[in-house]
Specification:
- The protein is of the alpha/beta class.
- The chain is built from 28 helices and 27 strands.
- α17 links the parallel β16 and β17.
- α4 runs parallel beside α5 and α6 packs parallel to α8.
- The radius of gyration is 35 Å and the shape is elongated.
- The structure holds uridine-5'-diphosphate-glucose.
- Uridine-5'-diphosphate-glucose binds next to α3, α6 and β8.
- Pathway: Carbohydrate biosynthesis.
- In the C-terminal section; belongs to the dTDP-4-dehydrorhamnose reductase family.
- It is an enzyme of class 4 (lyase).
């Protein structure tokens, strides 16, 4: 027996209800209510789990025996026909639709397909199967078009339908089909037209949840146009009750408005949200471009439904407070919704729900809600797969678990880009494609057509496609469009700002880049221009790396410049995409660094043998074709957005240290106030040794690092297992030629003889020093290791390194230290 109040003996009693779009906002409240109040109704919930629906919305139903969820699309006629028959459905409540007005200005075919064609498929299935006793079609107040602000008379159900936007046009179109199936085939239909609904579970593309989530983050509330548009807001539970009433008491063939007389303008809503969050509304409100068309008001005559016995119960203040409390408690309900919080989100920015049916409905018994759906909601389309930055971006996405695909299209071929966008449906597009010239930008001087095709035509085409699909393009551009001038002198600390006009067109490459940047300003709503300069990464094997480049030149100039440390800034570009940053950004680390400063670091910490020669700009001009830009970019805009951004020098130090100096792997040592020079030299060689090692370096029991890598400071060592009185390099196996003669010469014949061929036990420890020369005087540690392992399996082995890469002087000192001939305090 039913327990819900509105159903009575005289009212309609459904047996098995199909609810379409059940995991969406309004339908989920209706489903949860019906499941709870009417245990003898069977409910089949159908939803394709689009971006704005979530199985989480149906959690209250999941263990009810009268509930069944099916993932499927109403536009699939076979599925719908089968379902009606197999599930023996007698009632349909049809909520499934594309419902967001803003989206419909971008991709209205989706709306026609879902809202009109989908409804048609359902109606036709009802006609064919002939089992439906009640078909409740959910429409909207928007089908009446806008209401005059002056009038007090709401639209009664008999009003003319005059939709104004693509969304409401599709809803009106669907209504026409419903009416036609009622008249032509006698389908028992009822249509509802509702005001705006709000409350928990709503996808935050809609005004109220969007403003609440933005206010929670302390971000600005975007007001479309002047914010005077008025809407009437109903709380979701009241609306669920209205559907309950209509289901049971509605009259076949009738239309029911679900309305309220309580109206709020967008500015009122913003002010109320600010009040709840104690924010200053004047500071928080931010006016943005309006929708192409924005109905001023929808005003309904709500008497007809009231006569059936329904009444709105929740006051605005109460409803808004409850909604705010819910979003505050469930900030991650929808995962990463940064795209939806955009002032004008588009459907292609939003990804399908990644709800896992199993997770939520099969194995839900032992899962907690926090485990459900930690999806980021992002999907990147990246151009520049074979390039350096494009490759690094892909790797970064993989590491961060961000879904991405490389574009197949060529930038200059518009159709191929459109195909990529349609196929991938990305939330953001990254453009790291283009030509920079091989081996350098001089190439562009002799390949002007190719340069224009890729860097000008291609970039602009992609920007235009992104605009057409309302997508944000993160464009890797260049900062090499400026040169020091009177207002921005070298060493002055005054850098070029984002709004400055490029003043360097010395090379064809820079010239075209400056032109493109200017033209991209016309796409400022869809493009984020990142001015990269002299990119640096810890991957020294890449010839595009500025450090690698200058370390290979015969002679280099020595001029301070702004530069981009990709290890730090590429993750920031992803964060910028999430935040939907637009416009131009100097994408460099704050401050400048000179060629020599970089090469000094390289010499000191990567290759002590490294030498270079400087020359001046005049001399340089003789060996290059086009002049190069030298400048300082003002990175304060980026620093304001990302206060943790490191200065160029600190950034290089941090990332090189992290990559080349891994803790806990290498050495066992006792170091009190040891001379730092000695250690610094050893540490410098560790990356080289590791790179040459064909064995994996095992986790040691000691962390050893230089506290401020690349600068002077005390050596810091941390022991996890007792102190050792000797220095050892542990588990460094180098499969290479060992120079025994040199060892004899340096250590003295006698000592070297003692060492060679001897497997000695280390004093006060289990560790063993091993030296096994082969007959030809060469030493192969790999085979030695195998021999020793077999003979002395229970010992931990330490190996002494004697290798070309290690300067002999240091090697000897280390040798002496191992054999206690040298106190660790002794200076090298
Ligand atoms: O960031 C934003 C988002 C919205 N708005 C404005 O807020 C109002 C409400 O917008 P929204 O929440 O998107 O709702 P509507 O466009 O009024 O449409 C909703 O209400 C209709 C009933 O009136 C339903 O049919 C639709 O499916 C539902 O999306 C509109 O004037 C928008 O221009 C802003 O000013 N800033």
């Amino acid at each position: 027996m039913s327990t819900g109040s509105p159903a009575s003996a005289s009212s309609y009693a459904p047996r098995k209800i199909l609810i379409t779009g059940a995991a969406g906002f309004i339908a989920s409240h209706v489903t949860n209510r019906l499941i709870k109040n009417y245990p003898d109704y069977k409910i089949v919930a159908l939803d394709k789990l689009d971006y704005c629906s979530s199985l989480r919305n149906l959690i209250p139903c999941r263990s009810s025996p009268n509930f069944k969820f099916l993932k499927g699309d109403i536009t699939c006629a076979d599925l719908v026909n089968y379902l009606l028959v197999a599930e023996d459905i007698d009632t349909i409540m049809h909520f499934a639709a594309q419902s967001h007005v803003d989206n419909s200005f971008g991709n209205s075919f989706e709306f026609t397909n879902n809202n009109i064609y989908g409804t048609h498929v359902l109606l036709e299935a009802c006609k064919v199967t002939r089992k439906i006793k009640r078909f409740i079609h959910v429409s909207t107040d928007e089908v009446y078009g806008e209401t005059d602000l002056e009038t007090d008379i709401g639209n009664p159900e008999a009003s003319q339908l005059l939709p104004t936007n693509p969304y409401s046009a599709t809803k009106a179109g669907a209504e026409m089909l419903v009416m036609a199936y009622h008249r032509s085939y006698g389908l028992p239909t009822i249509t509802t037209r509702g005001n705006n609904v709000y409350g928990p579970n709503q996808f935050p593309e809609k005004l109220i949840p969007k403003f609440i989530l933005l206010a929670m983050k302390g971000e600005k509330l975007p007001i479309h146009g002047n914010g005077s548009n008025v809407r009437s807001y109903l709380y979701c539970e009241d609306v669920a009750e209205a559907f309950d009433v209509i289901l049971h008491k509605g009259v076949i063939g009738h239309v029911y408005n679900i309305g309220t007389q309580k109206e709020r303008s967008v500015l009122d809503v913003a002010a109320d949200v600010c009040k709840l969050f104690r924010l200053n509304s004047e500071e928080t409100i931010h006016y943005v471009q309006d929708r192409p068309f924005n109905d001023q008001r929808y005003f309904l005559d709500d008497q007809k439904l009231k006569k059936l016995g329904w009444q709105e119960k929740t006051t605005w203040d109460e409803g808004l407070k409850k909604t705010m409390d819910w979003y505050t408690k469930n900030p991650h309900w929808w995962g990463d919704v940064s795209s939806a919080l955009n002032p004008h989100p588009s459907i292609s920015m939003l990804t399908d729900s990644t709800d896992n049916y199993d997770t939520l409905f099969m194995k839900c018994g032992n899962r907690t809600e926090t485990q459900i759906g930690a999806d980021s909601g992002l999907k990147f389309l990246i151009y520049g797969r074979s390039g350096w930055i494009g490759g690094l971006l892909g790797k970064l996405c993989r590491d961060k678990g961000i879904v991405f695909e490389y574009g197949n299209g060529r930038l200059e071929d518009r159709n191929s880009l459109v195909n990529d966008v349609k196929r991938i449906r990305p939330t953001h597009v990254f453009n790291a494609a283009g030509v920079t010239g091989r081996p350098n930008v001089d190439w562009c001087e002799s390949h002007k057509a190719e340069t224009i095709r890729a860097n000008v035509v291609g970039t602009l085409t992609l920007a235009d496609v992104c605009k057409e699909h309302n997508l944000l393009m993160m464009n890797f551009a260049t900062g090499c469009i400026f040169e020091y001038d009177k207002e921005h002198r070298q060493g002055s600390g005054i850098g070029f700002k984002e709004e400055d006009t490029p003043n360097f067109i010395g090379s064809f490459y820079s010239k075209t880049k400056a032109m493109v940047e200017e033209l991209l300003k016309e796409y400022d709503q869809n493009v984020c221009t990142l001015r990269v300069r002299m990119p640096i990464s810890t991957d020294l094997s890449n010839p595009r790396n500025f450090i690698t480049k200058i370390s290979r030149y015969n002679k280099v100039v020595n001029i301070p410049n702004s530069m981009t440390v990709l290890d730090e800034l590429l993750p920031i570009s992803i964060e910028m995409a999430k935040r939907n940053c637009r416009g131009i950004w100097n994408f460099t680390n704050p401050g400048v660094i000179s060629h020599n400063e970089i090469l000094e670091m390289y010499r000191d910490y990567m290759d002590p043998e490294f030498k270079w020669e400087n020359f001046n700009l005049e001399e340089q001009s003789k060996v290059i074709v086009a002049p190069r830009s030298n400048n300082e970019l003002d990175a304060s805009k980026l620093k304001n957005e990302f206060p943790e951004l490191l200065s160029i020098r600190d950034s290089i130090i941090k990332f090189f240290k992290a990559k080349y100096l891994k803790r806990g792997h290498v050495a066992v040592c006792k170091v009190h106030n040891t001379d730092s020079q000695f250690w610094r030299k050893i540490l410098r060689y560790i990356p080289i040794l590791l790179n040459n090692s064909n064995r994996k370096v095992r986790d040691g029991n000691v962390s050893l690092w230089y506290d401020k890598f690349l600068s002077s400071g005390p050596l810091f060592a941390e022991f996890s297992e007792g102190e050792h009185s000797q220095i050892m390099l542990k588990d460094l196996v180098i499969d290479n030629v060992w120079d025994v003669e040199e060892l004899q010469r340096l250590l003295g014949l006698e000592k070297a003889d003692k060492v060679m061929g001897r497997v000695g036990k280390f004093r006060n420890s289990e560790d063993v020093i091993l030296w096994l020369p082969e007959k030809n005087g060469c030493f192969n540690t790999k085979s030695a290791w195998d021999v020793v392992r077999v003979r002395l399996p229970k010992f931990e082995w330490a190996k002494w390194v004697w290798h070309k890469c290690l300067p002999k002087k240091i090697a000897v000192c280390m040798w002496k230290a191992v054999f206690n001939c040298l106190s660790v305090d002794e200076k090298v």
